[in-house]
Amino acid sequence: MTSTVPTAVQHTDAQPPITMFGPDFPYAYDDFLAHPAGLGQIPATEHGTEVAVIGGGLSGIVAAYELMKMGLKPVVYEADQIGGRLRTVGFEGTGTDGLTAEMGAMRFPPSSTALQHYIDLVGLETKAFPNPLAESTPSTVVDLKGESHYATTVDDLPQVYRDVMNAWNACLEEGADFSDMNRALRERDVPKIREIWAKLVEKLDNQTFYGFLCESEAFKSFRHREIFGQVGFGTGGWDTDFPNSILEILRVVYTEADDHHRGIVGGSQQLPLRLWDREPQKIVHWPLGTSLASLHDGRAPKPAVTRLHRTAGNRVTVTDANGDIRTYRTAIFTAQSWMLLSKIECDDSLFPIDHWTAMERTHYMESSKLFVPVDRPFWLDKDEETGRDVMSMTLTDRMTRGTYLLDDGPDKPATICLSYTWCDDSLKWLPLSANERMEVMLKSLGEIYPKVDIRKHIIGNPVTVSWENEPYFMGAFKANLPGHYRYQRRLFTHFMQDDLPTDKRGIFLAGDDISWTAGWAEGAVTTALNAVWGVMHHLGGATDATNPGPGDLYDEIAPVELPED
Ligand SMILES: Cc1cc2nc3c(=O)[nH]c(=O)nc-3n(C[C@H](O)[C@H](O)[C@H](O)COP(=O)(O)OP(=O)(O)OC[C@H]3O[C@@H](n4cnc5c(N)ncnc54)[C@H](O)[C@@H]3O)c2cc1C
């Protein structure tokens, strides 16, 4: 459904906007970034010090950019390509020029305000993303158990869908203090957020999303739970998340991460690419005109890291795929944590044992997508009998699950994301080639739209991905299982190292998989900023008193701690 927000707390102009401010770590990253004092300073004696940044996804590039501005010398290592899971690809073939497909992130909530800071900084534009039943989406078809319903708003769907939406709102209200948390997040009322969340974390860490529904009076009906799993909230199709911790779901709904989405015009990968080339106006130590690209001699980042170990003086020594060995006083690791278990040879002494356990326990969702280029947005043609769009954004319980129609205006080539799936639904595609996948998808959609010949509009080969099969990712994004809160807390708080033994300091974890909001680029940005604070602090630097950083305020806003015994 398009909105999870009970009417009582619907956004009005009188209310402050909802942002991804907490609930676990209510720190105002957006204010920190906007402050004229900047993110902090390091002693002049450290200017030019090299810092290894492993991974050139958004988290690594943001971290490197901010370290460069502080006068440090980031050395970025990237195994695949700059952008990581912000991966925008083109199509082969005549007539497909300029068409792109977002294989990873494709839609961004306005509540991602730290991400938005960088989108604005590099001058990228956004436009409304055609989610199910979103205002800008011409039409949506919900196809369940062989029965299709056409809708332009939720009111066009049968009553049972509204009953399900009301059940979800009631369930959130009863089981998760939704309105109070929503208000506290809008008002950035830190004590209130912490009070509500502390109780919920304790109560719900062992609970699955599905168990949470089942315990609610509002969701007594199996049929309602089944429909909810299909159309869910926000972008729909959340039943593949049913086994995950309900805390993960609450983080998404409280912060409206799944609502009001916008896409980046021209593709999201432009963001890290533009940051790579950007010459900041305010920069310490380096001459104006310095960029991450120029610090890497105008070339690409260094290649994949193959070995990480500790050397004398608690240094971090990095070996790359070219066999180059370099030693750093400090490093930031931004790739998915599982890389440290298999693809990179690591010393145990890099991290405390509890952190290793947490990395091993990290649970990733699988995800597959397939896009095809088409000659024009033919879906806007009208059916002669009904006057409806001949094809619509489609949510279904068939193999495709979610189909998205993406156009740049009439009469121009366009793209269709024939299928976007998660978890088991993604694994079903894994052994199939791109063409085999497309054939099954066209068959499914052919059953929903028997009068439409989608194939005749396809002008190039499909492009596809299964993130679980990508050697430098091994999964799409983290999603905690029940009982994982403690692991998550260890990884997120790793940037606070003063209490660690000295021989465990100096390497900082970042990236969306250690954030509280994995699967959202906001988590990549905010954990990068934590790691930047960690590096600055490690090298004897400090923030300006008027702009305290995440580590400075840590004691007041630290994530709830659950007992280990
Ligand atoms: C299918 C999918 C859909 C998504 N949808 C959305 C969305 O709609 N909205 C949203 O906000 N977010 C979305 N996300 C999440 C978003 O893409 C991520 O939060 C963000 O891109 C993660 O950035 P990162 O830098 O933390 O990690 P990554 O992008 O994974 O970057 C890590 C980098 O490390 C590199 N690496 C790995 N191993 C090594 C090595 N040994 N040496 C050197 N480098 C290495 C990798 O190649 C990679 O480039 C989605 C993600 C996926 C996969």
UniProtKB/TrEMBL annotation:
- InterPro entries cross-referenced by the UniProt entry: Amino_oxidase, FAD/NAD-bd_sf, Flavin_monoamine_oxidase
Instruction: Extract the Pfam families matched here.
Output: Amino_oxidase (PF01593)
**Domain Amine oxidase: residue ranges:** 58-534
Q: Which Gene3D superfamilies match?
A: 1.10.405.40, 3.90.660.10, FAD/NAD(P)-binding domain
The protein's GO terms of the molecular function aspect are: L-amino-acid oxidase activity
GO biological process terms held by the UniProt record: amino acid catabolic process
Superkingdom, taxonomy of origin: Bacteria
The entry's protein name is Amine oxidase
| Source species | Streptomyces alboflavus
Give the organism's phylogenetic lineage: Bacteria, Bacillati, Actinomycetota, Actinomycetes, Kitasatosporales
